[in-house]
Every structure is written in C-alpha cells, then in structure tokens.
Design brief:
This protein is of the alpha+beta class and about 290 residues long. Helices cover about 25% and strands about 20% of the residues.
Length: about 290
C-alpha cells in the first residue's frame, strides 16, 4: 500500500472554534472502532469541503482514477446519469482518513454494502424540519416510537447533527430497495396521520413550510445520510450521534454532541447502535399487522 500522506493539517476548518483539519482527522481516528462498522464495505458519496465547513463544497460520486490503487472502488451503473460510476468503497481506517484528506467533513455511506448492493441493511425515517423548533421534532420522533412499538418494530434514533432526527430500523439485507422504500412510506403515512398538524410527506419544500418532513425517500438506492458518529458541517462541529429513546426529550439539543465530547460519550456508553446491524425485522409479519 502507498503511504497515506496528509496535507494542510493546520488549515482551520471551523473559524469560530479554531478547529483544524488535523482536529477532524484526530476525531475520526478516535471514534474509528465505532464508526467503521456502519461505513465499511459500502459505496460512498463524497461531500468535499476542502476549505472548511463554511467554504465551497461539492459532491463527488465518481472518483475515477483519483484514489491511489489501494483504495477499493465499486462500479455501479447509474440510471439517472446513464453511465457507470466508480464509487469509493471504505474498507478500513486508512480509507476513511483518505476521505477526510480529500476534505470530507461528513461521511455519507450507502444503505447497502457492495456484497448485497440491492438490499439495504436498514430503513430510515428522516425527520427534517422546515423552520420548526426542534422540540416539535422531538414530539414527532416520540410518535414514531409509539407507532413502531405498537407494531413490535425495533427502532434506533440518532441526531442528524443539524436540526433533525434519523430513526433507523434494521433490515439485515433481506429485502430490496423497493420493498424498503414502500415499507418506509407506509410508516411515514401512519405517523403523519397522527401528526398532520405539524408533519408533511410532501416532497416539494414549498408545500411543507413550517412542517416536519417525514422523508422516506432516503431509502432509494444510492441515497445517503450522514453516518452515525459522522461530523457535520455546522459551526459547532456537531456529530450525528446515536441516542437512547429516553434521551429524546425537551432537554435534547440537536447539536449537543461535537468532535470534542463524543468520545467521552462513547467511553461511557459504548456503541449503543450495534443492533442496527444485527437481526433484521420480519417484514411480512409486520405488514400483516398493519393490513
């Protein structure tokens, strides 16, 4: 393997805090044991921000010949682009740090792994507020919990690291993307029925102002969300952090966890999200309860 060379480690990525690119690398090294299970073996969409969180950014899916030979890639045909795309595949701490060297503050893996590319490991409901106080997001998240508990569906929430909450359901790569998306859509409708005063399932942002969008379309093939323990490009250098349900209260602040305190939380609690990658749900059994 070629030597992994880092550059511009003293470049300030967070002017308000004085955090540097080197601080970002140190964070990912520290949490590597926790984050790697959720990003390894997956294609990645690279959100590159080489001048820091508030600098110009660009998404890069097709890495072409950019990475060194030791970086793994997956060639996937894109229907929308009508061409083959070479995605970077994370398979180690070094490949994670290579992404950071390219200016990736946040890490955006596919929901599925290369070995089962058409079958996601999880379903996610993304609670995405449009100019709504975070406390209302907390309320809706707890309705999601109530609905899924009634159906005996295990759920695992995390902060988005910005203004929302992501709620994951383990699928264990047993169902394809279309089945996963349809299931997420059914759940979104069930939650919306109980919260239609504050939530929306409208895709068009203009039609969901002052509402919390229950985004089930994140479950399409090729869609990505920030991984658990991923840093987000916010003034606080916040981290998308797994939560216990009892933590989702009016006291919760969406950007409370950062590159400076997340490791302390991990030391205390460990990775509370491990069940997301273990036994998946029985979809047919759940759909029988709903129908």
């Amino acid at each position: 393997m070629d030597k992994l060379i880092f550059s511009h480690l003293d470049k300030v990525f967070w002017p308000e805090k004085g955090y540097t690119k080197g601080d970002l690398l140190d964070y990912y090294k520290a949490v590597s044991d926790a984050i790697l299970p959720y990003i390894t073996g997956r294609p990645h969409n690279l959100l590159r921000q080489p001048n820091g969180y508030n600098g110009k950014s660009f998404f890069q899916k097709d890495v072409g010949d950019l990475p060194p030979e030791w970086i793994k890639k997956a060639r996937v045909y894109s229907e929308s682009n009508q061409k083959e795309i070479d995605y970077l595949v994370c398979d180690s701490l070094d490949s994670l740090l290579y992404m950071v060297q390219l200016g990736c503050i946040e890490i955006n893996p596919w929901n599925s792994r290369v070995k089962s590319l058409d079958k996601p490991d999880w379903v996610v409901l993304d609670l995405d507020p449009e100019d709504v106080p975070f406390q209302r997001v907390v309320e809706v998240a707890n309705i999601v919990r109530r609905v899924t508990e009634e159906l005996n569906i295990p759920t695992y929430p995390k902060t988005s690291g910005k203004s929302g909450i992501h709620i994951f359901i383990p699928m264990a790569a047993k169902y394809d993307y279309e089945q996963a998306k349809k299931f997420a859509e059914i759940l979104a409708h069930l939650v919306h029925r109980r919260t239609d005063d504050i939530t929306s399932i409208e895709r068009n942002p203009a039609k969901r102002q002052k509402k919390i969008y229950i985004d089930f379309l994140q479950n399409r093939e090729g869609q990505t969300l920030a991984a658990p323990y991923s840093v987000r490009p916010t003034p606080e250098a916040s981290v998308s952090t797994p939560l216990k349900w009892e933590e989702i209260t009016s006291w919760l602040k969406p950007t409370a966890f950062t590159i400076k305190n997340t490791m302390k939380r991990l030391d205390k609690l460990g990775d509370i999200w491990q069940p997301v990658l273990k036994e998946g749900i029985d979809l047919a059994k759940i759909l029988k309860k709903i129908s």
